[in-house]
């Protein structure tokens, strides 16, 4: 399974979140500049169903807007400033759409882990929309993306919509029935919090044929320790050329 996926060891978390406002085109450009060959980002929907790159359910933390994304139409979302909160030099940075981001990935030759981050009660509609966009608009020049989510329902709907998707089951803690869940969602990777990783845990997952991707690792020594334990890839806010 490992040899088929072609996923690099270093993946920029929300672009290069430590250096630029997360989940923005500037952040993806910075990750590329730093030597990353893949980035991770989150996709959710506006009120009227436009797919945008955004982590939180609410606009407050990373924009000058307020309230839930699920209750805000695209015509308002596209006017928001998504950069000034991070640093004044990024003032005027916008929340990108998923399609804009795919165009930039093509331009930069960047692969991606796409995390489906549905707003509350939108698992199916967001997953189906993301899967259809990948099916119809993913740049053919790029390696197939890894599609992950904490929502196992979203992963099922995505895979049902686009059967060729490579799925990553995303967990904060590894449930006792993780292997059963992984099979149900047809996962090919297990993505977990670095804080729960032990040699025993990694060995157990790897022995079942699943590569482990660990988040969020911002220390190079820690990254090397994880690789030595058998972790396949790490997500980092400070990506570097491997």
Automatic annotation (TrEMBL):
InterPro entries: GP_PDE_dom, PLC-like_Pdiesterase_TIM-brl. Residues 8-242 form the GP-PDE domain. One of its GO terms (biological process) is lipid metabolic process. GO terms for molecular function: phosphoric diester hydrolase activity. Signal peptide: none annotated. This is Glycerophosphodiester phosphodiesterase. It comes from Fluviispira sanaruensis.
